[in-house]
């Protein structure tokens, strides 16, 4: 088993980060292009705790090195990951647990991501991935598979941070514009009410 | 928003995602979102109906069932303890 760990700080509130997290892989994110689709397959809110639980199916397209492809039987073009997330509003924590669905008999990837507020304006991101090659055979091959995936995680983490920063900046802009629009339309409504009352 | 893995579900997904994001930011985060006042429920059902067909066609439904079995422990950790 190999472990990949990473921590980042985002200069946005936990509320902004947890909202933008739902559209982390939208077209604003030009970096994480290996994610081609994100589907919500279930969502429920626990009445007692207020925890929002979501299952998302993440579809990735990323070519593997040739030697790994031949080992896994070629078609590694598209793979799926099941991400289960828990938003705990009371404790201001988002926890996302992800596991690979594709090749799960050969490789086991378990990733945990946590978003917690550092203060009112900053959010801490921590990521832990445990990668285990399950296939029988030489330890050397297992090690190579695990090392390749750790390397991939590291590359994707850098791109993921850059991409998410863009999504966060865009989200803040769009929300500000929306609030402005709402304010303007409220003013317009009030003005027309006054005109009508005067007429 | 991101794409659906099944292009035929894209429109339904977009409608649901937009509704959810609004609910999340305007209600859930303000502590006034409950399971009952979730106005996105019907949109989710439509999107899910479309998606289920696509998942079955690709054999992903079976993989999901297996993964969910493994996930029960996580539910206990992130849900159960806080009850």
From TrEMBL, chain A:
<dbReference type="GO" id="GO:0005758">
    <property type="term" value="C:mitochondrial intermembrane space"/>
</dbReference>
<dbReference type="Pfam" id="PF04707">
    <property type="entry name" value="PRELI"/>
</dbReference>
<feature type="domain" description="PRELI/MSF1">
    <location>
        <begin position="1"/>
        <end position="176"/>
    </location>
</feature>
<protein>
    <recommendedName>
        <fullName>PRELI/MSF1 domain-containing protein</fullName>
    </recommendedName>
</protein>
<dbReference type="InterPro" id="IPR006797">
    <property type="entry name" value="PRELI/MSF1_dom"/>
</dbReference>
<dbReference type="InterPro" id="IPR037365">
    <property type="entry name" value="Slowmo/Ups"/>
</dbReference>
Automatic annotation (TrEMBL), chain B:
<dbReference type="Pfam" id="PF05254">
    <property type="entry name" value="UPF0203"/>
</dbReference>
<dbReference type="GO" id="GO:0005758">
    <property type="term" value="C:mitochondrial intermembrane space"/>
</dbReference>
<keyword id="KW-1015">Disulfide bond</keyword>
<protein>
    <submittedName>
        <fullName>Mitochondrial distribution/morphology family 35/apoptosis</fullName>
    </submittedName>
</protein>
<comment type="similarity">
    <text>Belongs to the TRIAP1/MDM35 family.</text>
</comment>
<dbReference type="GO" id="GO:0045332">
    <property type="term" value="P:phospholipid translocation"/>
</dbReference>
<dbReference type="InterPro" id="IPR007918">
    <property type="entry name" value="MDM35_apoptosis"/>
</dbReference>
<dbReference type="GO" id="GO:1990050">
    <property type="term" value="F:phosphatidic acid transfer activity"/>
</dbReference>
<dbReference type="GO" id="GO:0005829">
    <property type="term" value="C:cytosol"/>
</dbReference>
<dbReference type="GO" id="GO:0005634">
    <property type="term" value="C:nucleus"/>
</dbReference>
């Amino acid at each position: 088993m190999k472990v990949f760990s990473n921590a980042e700080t985002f200069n946005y509130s936990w509320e902004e980060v947890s909202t933008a997290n739902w559209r982390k892989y939208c077209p604003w994110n030009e970096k994480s292009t290996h994610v081609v689709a994100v589907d919500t397959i279930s969502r429920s809110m626990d009445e007692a705790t207020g925890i929002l639980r979501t299952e998302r199916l993440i579809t990735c397209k990323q070519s593997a090195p040739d030697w790994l492809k031949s080992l896994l039987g070629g078609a590694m073009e598209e793979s799926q990951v099941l991400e289960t997330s828990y938003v705990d509003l009371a404790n201001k924590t988002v926890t996302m647990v992800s596991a690979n669905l594709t090749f799960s008999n050969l490789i086991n990837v378990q990733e945990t991501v946590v978003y917690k507020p550092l203060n009112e304006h900053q959010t801490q991101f921590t990521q832990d991935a445990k990668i285990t090659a399950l296939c029988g055979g030489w330890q050397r091959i297992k090690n190579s598979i695990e090392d390749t995936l750790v390397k991939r995680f590291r590359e994707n983490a850098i791109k993921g941070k850059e991409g998410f920063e863009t999504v966060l900046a865009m989200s803040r802009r769009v929300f500000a514009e929306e609030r402005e629009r709402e304010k303007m339309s409220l003013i317009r409504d009030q003005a027309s009410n006054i005109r009508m009352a005067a007429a | 928003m991101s794409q659906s893995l099944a292009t035929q579900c894209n429109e339904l997904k977009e409608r649901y995602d937009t509704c959810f994001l609004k609910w999340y930011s305007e209600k859930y985060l303000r502590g006034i979102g409950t399971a009952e006042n979730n106005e996105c429920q019907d949109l989710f059902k439509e999107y899910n109906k479309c998606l289920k067909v696509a998942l079955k066609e690709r054999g992903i439904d079976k993989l999901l069932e297996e993964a969910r079995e493994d996930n029960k422990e996580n539910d206990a950790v992130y849900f159960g303890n806080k009850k």
